[in-house]
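pipeline/complex-builder :: batch 7 item 3
reading input block
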Amino acid sequence: MSKFKKKKSGDMPAVNTASLPDIVFMLLFFFMVATVMRQNTLKIENNLPFADQVEKLDKKDLVMYIYAGKPSANYKQYGKETRIQLNDDFASVKEIAAFIAAERASKREELIPFLTTALKVDSDANMGLIGDIKQELRKVNALKINYTTKKGSVLGRE
Amino acid sequence: MAKRAAPEVNAGSMADIAFLLLIFFLVTTTIETDSGINRKLPPMEESEEDVVIKQKNIFTVLLNGKDQLLVEDELMELKDLRQAAKEFLDNGGDGSCDYCNGKKDKSSSDNPDKAIISLKNERETTYKTYIAVQNELVAAYNELRNARAQSLYGKPFDEMEENYKDVNWPGNKERLKERIDQIKIDYPQKLSEVQQ
């Protein structure tokens, strides 16, 4: 045995991995800080369409989200028609006014004019529902809207 | 009596634990997309008097239930829409617009201030197509504004807006704001949507 052991002296020393945990922790903290937990549990399919002339929504606390899409696989009992989702549950068009009022009540008064409504709508939804939502938003005077999209070319993807 | 040193805790599995946490966060979190096309809805109260707009100043875009595009009563592909909209907006038919590069066609729009794009869709139109059309129309405005800003101030319009939002931008913000407003007056975004 000693015959083989002799060789070791000339070998490369093993790479020191003592700092590996530090590196991993660094990555861990980055991801913990950079990512945002979802506010709402989605009960609908939400595959956003693509657009390239997008503007950023900068103030996250001044955005009200309205989701729409087909009920996802776990909620098939709600049918196949496109539905609206407000907060954590399905809603009808009529409930939008109450939702906007509740959102406004939860914000400071001077911020209310800056509130934006972000429409996160599935790309396969049809415009009838969107028209209804828009009409409802006009009634409660929530005129600033944003069609949330993914960044990408419109023409390339179908 | 020799002091008994406390046995050291084995930290070899620390990396494994950290990896486990890392993977958990990687999988559970989604980076939210919060960008999109901003629009302003018209207020509810209808003005009493009807505004008379000449037919030639309106650029009608109709999206039917089968996602087909009808522009000024002619079928059109989505990829040609941007160019058509640009030509319409930049026409400058009455000669009052000295910065327009259009054809000065008498039968098309008078000037960018009067030109209105009217978008109509049916209930069966899919959202995807609607967004694509909106995107193309906004792109037409943006390209014209970019060209105008480039010729006036030597900088594209989107860069100017970006600078305006940037807190660390060193230049004169008030002057930049004036310039941005000037471009917006030159090419106002007049996009009207027909309500069913």
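note: The first helix of chain B runs from residue 14 to 28.
queue -> next item
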